[in-house]
Known about the structure:
binds ligand C2E; binds magnesium ion; Diguanylate cyclase (GGDEF) domain-containing protein
Amino acid sequence: DLAMYNVKNRGKNDFEFYNINMRNKLSKEMLVKALKEDELELYYQPKVNGLTGDITGMESLLRWNHPEKGFISPVEFIPIAEETGLIISIGEWVLKKACEQTKRWNLMTNSTLVIAVNISNIQFRKVDFIEMIKRVLKESGLNPKYLELEITESVAVNNEEEVIKKLIMLKRLGVSVAIDDFGTGYSSLSYLQKLPIDTLKIDKVFVDDIVKDDTIAKMIINMAKNLEISVIAEGVEREDQLNQLLKIGCESIQGYLFSKPLSTEKFEELLIKEQQIKINQ
Length: 281
Ligand code: C2E
Ligand code: MG
Ligand code: MG
Ligand code: MG
C-alpha cells in the first residue's frame, strides 16, 4: 500500500521537493552573499517609558536589502537561515553589531540604553552559545548590563535543564533575558516560575484589541508582578492602546505609536533630538 501510495503521489511529491530545494538552495547562496556583501543591515526600534516618553533602550531588527529583489522581510529569511544553519554566523554578526553600536551610543549621549537582540532557538541550543555571548561582549566592550536577549517560549520545550543552566549563566554574566511574543506559546505559570528570566514581552496580538478586551494582557501583567519580573508591550500603535496599558500597569512600550524601527542614522538623530530636549528643559 505504501508502495502504491508512493507511485501514485510521486509526481506531486517530486515537484514539491524540487521547489522547496530550489528555494532553499537559492536562498542559502543568496544569504551567504548577503553576509559577505553587506546586504544585511540592523534597524533599531525604541523601547520607551509610556508615561514619560523617555527612550530606555531599543530592539535590533534585521533587514535585508537585496540588490535586485529589494527588501526581504526577516519573517521570510530567518526561517531559511535557521534551516541552513546560517543563523549561527548571521546571529553572531547581529549581536556584535548591536553591542558595538550600543556602546557607541551610550558613550555619545551619556546614556544607559539597553539593547535587545533576538536570539533564534537554534542559536540558543548550541553548546557554545554562552561562549559566543562572552566573546561578543569582550570584543565589543559593552557592559553586559546593557544587553538583553529576546528568546521565545518554545526555547525550553525539550531540554529544560540545559535551558535553565544557560539562563543562570547569562544571569551570572549580568545579561538579561526577555520572553518574546509572550502569550502565544504554551507556558504555564509553574513552568515560567522555574525560568530565571527578567521580562515578559506581551505579544502584539493581545495589544491589538486591548481596548475591547484586556483579559489576557491583564493576566500577563499580573503574572509578571507575582514573579517579580518586568513587562513590556509590543506592537503599540495607538494612543488608546497606550492608555489602556498604563491603566492596567504596563509602562514599558514598543510600537509604531512612538516609532517604527529606524536605520542607524535615523535612530541616532532621534537620540540626539531627545538629548537636546532634555538639555533645554
Ligand atoms: P519580533 O522580535 O517579535 O519583533 C517585532 C516585530 O514587530 C518587528 O517586525 C517589528 O518591526 C514589528 N513591529 C514593531 N512595532 C510594531 C507595530 O506597532 N505595528 C506592527 N504592525 N508591527 C510592529 P520585523 O522587523 O519584521 O521582524 C519580524 C520578526 O523577525 C521578529 O519578531 C523576530 O522574530 C525576527 N527577527 C528580526 N530580526 C532578527 C534577528 O536579528 N535575529 C533573529 N533570530 N530573529 C530576528
Ligand atoms: Mg523581538
Ligand atoms: Mg516580539
Ligand atoms: Mg512578534
